[in-house]
Design goal:
The complex is a heterodimer of chains A (166) and B (816). Chain A has 166 residues and is of the alpha+beta class. Chain A is 34% helix and 15% strand. Chain B has 816 residues and is an alpha+beta fold. The chains are: A alpha+beta (166), B alpha+beta (816).
């Protein structure tokens, strides 16, 4: 008996995709297994830890409790889309500079959440960053160097937007 | 350090550390990071290839029950299902799990329960299917008949007569009991002015990395060999035990390490997923992945942390001098006891803290209950001892009317190496300097003023000051000195590194059993190799080698990685330099002793222009064999198996356990908290931490471990608990109930480092990976108690949840 499937169309990291998926297929499994994008990780499978965070039409969601069919027609951004032309995104570069990661498992979700935070507020205070990343658990770093990295990246992103060398 | 220069029996030679270092000590970017930042970490779940089958485990809903008939036909007939294996079948396919516990035959542990389940979550069957979805569908079609038995979840009740038995063969729930005396306990207590007594309770928490444990196994029927990728490789010298479980010779089992998304101890020697995946792979003839989901990892993980009840007595003089300690501890190991009471070896390594306490009585009882078994969690039981001792010191200061900082200071050990009553050595330290630095960074006097000012406004501010130890680099003896006639008094805990210099002078370092767990073995090795060979750490290539044709190694654990890798790198480098020196001497037509290593090559002493770089030497050794004497082989590579550098044997009567955890760091944590007595909530106003773990290799990396460990310690102190009710149900079985601190619960830390080099290790490094969690629970408990002191309230139980704080306030007559 062939499983019941639906056709979905969506854009992932700027690339259009049309796919047949089971209605129950989770978005995270669709991204990881069907599209071969393993950067989005699975942490708790109940929507608490934020490890699986991706952006759906620019807003962060938990891809472990989102069905792939719910992303029909949407634009999805994952960690694989951050680096452009072989250059790390300022967030990635500052996470490295400040050691804002240890095991790296929460990092993709944390980076995508940080990207959303800075899109909403390009100049957050450390306290605002902490409050905003409280959506995502990190078991290694204690968040301090993540906060520093987001603040540093924000400054660089503001500078490059204003045409000033970072 | 005059004492260090005298010969101490069994001690390695005292080293002279180079004053100038180029790479060791630099906060360089970690070499591991780019792949993780790009989403190409290569974790275990990323290695599932098309066609791989998925296993899912059916977990017991009962804490204690006999297993009756298991009906699997419907599951086996379900779409995409390839196999269903029950616990009884698994007991035929596999032997019991590797188990270092006392008398394993009397508390047999298997990958799936066969006759009886012993905790909620224990596996009773496994389904193998085309996808995880289909495997979980089929789990719902399995019918298991359970005959419930009365459970026991309280360790003291478990030890009482008439308790239900977790393992009938043991005829008791006490898996181990012994009392040790170190030093003259009776004299110290008889001569004491006062004895401070307390009863303390530390509930269980666990590492809970964001990535669970997983394994992907293949069985090659043609060769009879297993290949298993897993995020848990460690103790490669002991892999014959896992091979025995899978019923293959160890040279037919290749376990290959993959990066782990965090461990914190909880992936140490975690063989169960590898065994389940292996069993399923052989049964189906297919590649099989078994990845725990979060429920598996919480309820059926084999690595819950310590769960202890203490009755403690501290013998004191009125002036604040500490004399002796009597510790009576019951530890709830859960349903199995895979590492024996090694956790208490960790405690005994630093049982007296940084203080000149002269004697210790240590009675330990290991209780078996209907809970998930204990394993490892950052600190491995030593963090619990730190908390217990610091609680006692604070209570003593309070009862004697002394300043808690002054009491600590006056009892500090000041001469090193210092042997504590148990026989372990503290190699080096400067506790007063750490304390002074911490008080300064914390602005201690300022916060005491603030505390007074805010108390007048009715606010409850507390300042905790704790000074405690961080043992590092365990020796094997701590796992068997518990027994008069140990079954296996092993003495090896090596770590190995191979260095290979290619024809262009590029260096590849091969690590064995040393997985990436979020620690930084690649960065550490790259910096150490760069220090030896004057290259860039980013030019060093690192390989994680599988077990089968690997060298003996132990892997991360007990804050040993950096020290042991440093020894192995130093040894392998020396061999390479020896050969390179001889080759360079031949090429320069000069005696080897006339050469000196300088800036990436050998040069002639007194004639620095005459020089051969490592690359120039390497290409000759690789390609021009006949340019060298007959006995010189082609190539330039060497391996070093670095054994534990400082172990001495326990005495026959076990009044002296010998040296088993010799490189002992120290730290002082000073949190400032506010307790809301209406809600029981605790918030941080400030937090300073100063650590001394000898010479730093990468200060920022260590700072990251201090903050991260402290965050975990905050969880242990305030939020995290695996709560089992009286029926053995696990009430905190998801992250909705098992509360991991977020960025809002963890304050910004002010971190300081003091560097007292170890006299016995390369560069003077001591281990530092566990320090944050070894200090924070004690420090936060001290701060909360300081806040509530004017109300006559002391918290003696962790985690200090709002409910427990409010209950303590109510018990003291403060209606909440």
């Amino acid at each position: 008996m062939a499983p019941d499937t639906r056709t979905i169309s969506l854009t992932v990291n700027g690339q259009p995709h049309v796919a047949q998926v089971e209605p129950r297929r989770l978005l995270v499994d669709f991204l990881r297994e069907d599209l071969g994008l393993p950067g989005t990780h699975i942490g708790c499978e109940h929507g608490v830890c934020g490890t699986c965070t991706v952006l759906l039409n620019g807003a962060s969601i938990r891809s472990c409790i989102t069905l792939a069919v719910q992303a029909d027609g949407a634009s999805i951004d994952t960690v694989e889309g951050l680096a452009q032309g072989g250059e790390l995104h300022p967030l990635q570069d500052e996470f490295s500079e400040k050691q804002g990661l240890q095991c790296g498992f929460c990092t993709p979700g944390m980076l995508m959440r940080a990207r959303e935070i800075l899109a909403e507020n390009p100049d957050p205070s450390p306290g605002q960053v902490r409050e905003a990343i409280a959506s995502n658990l990190c078991r290694c770093t204690g968040y301090q160097f993540i906060t520093e990295a987001v603040i540093s990246a924000a400054a660089r992103m503001r500078a490059s937007k204003e045409g000033v060398a970072p | 350090m005059t004492a260090a220069n005298q010969a101490t029996p069994g001690a390695p030679p005292v080293r002279d550390h180079s004053a100038s270092r180029r790479w060791v000590g630099q906060s360089i970017r970690r070499v591991e990071d780019p792949k993780f930042l790009l989403g190409r970490g290569g974790y275990i779940a990323d290695r599932i290839t098309p066609g791989t089958l998925h296993a899912a485990v059916l977990r017991s809903p009962f804490a204690h029950a006999r297993i009756g008939r298991i009906e699997t036909a419907a599951a086996l007939a379900a779409p995409g299902v390839h196999a269903v294996i029950t616990g009884r079948e698994a007991a035929e396919l596999c032997d019991p799990m590797p188990d270092f516990g006392p008398d394993p035959a009397k508390h047999t542990w298997r990958c799936l329960a066969a006759e009886k389940v012993r905790y909620v979550g224990e596996g009773v069957a496994v389904v193998v299917a085309d996808s995880r979805y289909l495997a979980e569908d089929a789990l719902e079609l399995i019918e298991v008949e359970y005959e419930p038995l009365p459970p026991v979840t309280d360790p003291e009740r478990a030890l009482a007569a008439g308790s239900p038995l977790v393992h009938e063969a043991l005829e008791s729930n006490c898996a181990y009991e012994r009392s040790f005396d170190f030093g003259d306990v009776e004299r110290d207590f008889a001569e004491a002015d006062v004895v401070i007594r307390d009863r303390l309770r530390w509930h269980r928490s666990g590492g809970q990395p964001l990535e669970t444990v997983g394994a992907i196994a293949e069985y090659d029927q043609g060769t009879g060999s297993f290949t298993i990728d897993t995020n848990t490789l460690s103790f490669t010298s002991y892999l014959f035990m896992a091979a025995g479980t899978l019923k293959v010779p160890v040279n037919k089992l290749d376990i290959r390490p993959v990066p782990a998304g965090g461990s914190f101890g909880s992936k140490l020697f975690a063989n169960k997923p590898a065994v389940i995946a292996g069993m399923c792979a052989r049964k189906t003839g297919r590649r099989v992945a078994y990845l725990e989901d979060r429920s598996d990892n919480i309820a059926n993980c084999d690595h819950h942390g310590s769960d202890r009840v203490y009755d403690v007595e501290l013998a004191m003089m009125r002036d604040g001098t500490m004399r002796g300690l009597k510790i009576d501890v019951v530890d709830d190991y859960g349903a199995y006891i895979q590492f024996g009471v090694g956790h208490h070896g960790n405690a005994l390594a630093q049982v007296v803290g940084p203080y000149t306490i002269g004697s210790v009585r240590y009675r330990v009882r290991a209780a078996l209950t209907n809970k998930n078994q204990q394993g490892a969690y950052r600190g491995f039981g030593s963090e619990v001892n730190n908390w217990m001792l610091e609680q006692m010191v604070d209570k003593a200061a309070r009862e004697l009317g002394l300043d808690p900082v002054a009491v600590r200071r006056m009892n500090f050990i000041r001469d090193f190496p210092h042997f504590i009553p148990t026989g372990n050595v503290y190699d080096s330290g400067d506790y007063e300097r750490v304390l002074d630095h911490a008080l300064e960074l914390a602005r201690y006097d300022h916060w005491r003023d603030e505390q007074r000012r805010l108390r007048e406004q009715g606010r409850h501010i507390g300042i905790g000051v704790i000074t405690a130890q961080e043992r590092s680099v365990f020796s094997a003896t701590e796992f068997w000195f518990w027994f008069d006639e140990p079954g296996a008094p092993v003495t090896s805990t090596p770590e190995s590194v191979s260095l290979k210099v290619d024809a262009t002078g590029g260096i590849t370092a091969v690590l064995y059993s040393c997985a990436f767990w979020g620690n930084s073995p690649e960065t550490m090795v790259a910096q150490l190799v760069a220090e030896e060979f004057d290259c860039s750490p980013y030019d060093v290539s690192i390989v994680y080698h599988g077990s089968r044709d690997g060298l003996p190694a132990t892997g991360p654990g007990g804050s040993r990685t950096t020290v042991m890798l440093a020894g192995a790198v130093e040894g392998a480098s020396a061999k390479i330099k020896e050969k390179a020196r001889r080759a360079a001497a031949h090429l320069l037509e000069i005696g080897p002793d006339d050469l000196e290593w300088s800036d990436g090559g050998f040069r002639v002493r007194g004639d620095p222009e005459r020089k051969k770089t490592l690359g120039e030497i390497a290409i000759m050794l690789h390609l021009f064999k006949h340019s060298f004497p007959e006995d010189m082989e082609s190539g330039l590579d060497a391996s070093k198996v670095f054994d534990h550098p400082y172990t001495t044997m326990p005495s026959a009567d076990r009044k002296d356990l010998g040296v088993f955890y010799p490189f002992v760091g120290h730290a002082c944590h000073v949190p400032v908290v506010e307790v809301d007595i209406e809600t029981g909530a605790v918030t941080f106003l400030n937090y300073a931490a100063v650590h001394d773990c000898g010479t730093l290799v990468n200060p920022r990396s260590l700072a990251g471990h201090i903050v991260g460990g402290t965050a975990q310690g905050i969880g242990t102190a305030l939020y995290e608990e695996f709560v089992y009710d009286d029926d053995g149900q696990l009430l905190s079985s998801s992250f909705m109930d098992y509360l991991i601190p977020t960025a809002m619960e963890v304050p910004e830390l002010t971190i300081g480092h003091v560097e007292t080099p170890s006299p016995y290790t390369p560069h003077g490094i001591k281990g530092g990976g566990e320090g944050g969690r070894m200090m924070a629970p004690a420090a936060i408990n001290a701060a909360v108690n300081d806040a509530l002191a004017p109300l006559g309230v002391r918290l003696t139980e962790l985690p200090m949840t709002p409910e427990r704080i409010l209950a303590a306030l109510r018990a003291a007559g403060h209606a909440g």
